[in-house]
Amino acid sequence: MDLSDFSLLYPSGYKGHDPAPDISADTIEQLELDLLFQLNNAPLEEFFTTSPEVIRYRQDIFEDMEACPELAETLSKVVPVLLDIEELRRLASNAVSAGGTDTESYLFSLSEIELYTSCLSIMHKGLSGCRDRVKSDAFRALCDRITELTESDYYRDLNEKLNALTQRVRDIKSVTIGVNLDSQLRPVYAGVLSINSRPFKSGEVIDKILRLNFKNDENTCIAPLSPFIKGQSENQQYATTHAFYAAINDVFRSSVRSWRHLVSEYVLENTDFLLSLLPEVEFVVKSSRIISALRRRGITLCRPDVRPVEEQALSFKALANPVVALRIEDEIVTNDLDFDENAGIYVLTGPNRGGKSVITCALGQAVALCMLGLPVPAESAVISPCDGIFAHFPTGSDDTIDKGRLGEECARLEEIFNHATRHSLVLLDESLSSTGSFEASYIAAEVLTGFAVLGCHALFSTHLHELAAKVDDINADSAARGGVHVDNLVAGIDDGRRSFKILRQRPDGKSYAHDIAEKYNLSFDQIMAKLGDRLKK
Questions:
Q1: For a tag on the chain, would you pick the N or C end, based on fewer CB atoms within 10 A?
Q2: 24: burial class by Cβ within 10 Å (0-12, 13-18, 19+)?
Q3: Are strands 497-503 and 486-494 parallel, antiparallel or unpaired?
Q4: What pLDDT, on a 0 to 100 scale, did the predictor assign at position 117?
Q5: Model's pTM, two decimal places?
Q6: Domains in the chain, start-ordered, CATH in brackets?
Q7: What is the tens place of the pLDDT at every residue in 174-232?
Q8: How far apart are CA 36 and CA 324, in angstroms?
């Protein structure tokens, strides 16, 4: 079975087929997805896809991992072994660069094959019991490949040779070195006399006491070689070590030659196959843990109905913010969100800390999770992948010396317009908050009209209630240019308290403020009641 192009995340031959969506590391950070995944072997942006086919391929994988927990457990055990193989190769490469001997290369090869067989053993043991239960093409192919490798005659022969060779190496505990001297007791020739399965005894009193053996024999050292005495320079120690390796290399020369042939013929090809999967294995393991954590938190997850990009479908029932859900212990409030013919873009207003930023992030997170192939935190969802997700959130950027805060915000908005298309998703949270409401509302209306004419999906969370009042004018300008419709959302207030429910309605502009004022005894009637007696004096 040829799995040279095998991938856990892409159907056969599909990897690299579609252009990667424009989702930058900055956007991932603003959506806090980097905190959710915490990947070490590849950046998260490498795993996004716009292909419904690829997304469904991955959805099958994650359904298998939920149905068969041993899959995630097995892959988790494989990751550190693969990391050890990578580190071993790095060390071997450094040894070659430093002029290492054939013996070092031999030992590195021996260790790599030990790790390779260990990796296959872990996978075979963990996957063999799942083969009849998995449904995804990826795991069925991986199970079959691992079974084929581990049950082949060649693999059994490899293990036998490995055991014999490793035993031979591990039996080496010491070597006997002979040195010929001239009449002045100067060394003129030195060589290895024998390779021994027992370590020599130091000959020191403490060693004799510990061993309860006070006699000297041919296996007892009567004087150490000076390069290994404490205080000797590294160059002196290196000289002896190098000479020793050169001698050992002669002893193992035939074994090294045959071993190299074995490695190049078989092992490197299959080790490369496993190493190429390392970033994907880490990604699916971390994703599986996220799914499990959300399930334990009581968050409903669904397999979204994935539509073609061109359809621009985007709707959610009972959408939750997964990052917030895993961060707090309070009840999680969910919201419906539906982009339709009457709302390609939303303006979301409401009180501070009323859930505007939470739902804005939740929208971006849900679309991103879908484009990674994961289930999304909602009761149901219909999603068309987008060709880019662009976020314009408050930033602590210091790039304000030349531009000022407003200039920096406008420059970031311009950058979004330079890259967004009608198939993009744009998320704006409290944009243009660095200037007065008049200037901010004017610029925001211009920006929203531009996005409406572009025809992309967007959610603009803002404190600018004047902007919500301009929606009709924005729609008139957009309609004249064939753009999409803009509608209003409001973060709700219930009896003066934030409900965190997002309502599709026109904002009152005053009602929620009146409720908050009453909550803190600051309505005009309440203030007048407090001042009543004093005003009479």
A1: C
A2: middle
A3: antiparallel
A4: 83
A5: 0.80
A6: 300-506 (3.40.50.300), 510-537 (no CATH)
A7: 778 788 888 888 888 877 777 777 787 665 554 544 454 545 566 676 566 655 555 66
A8: 11
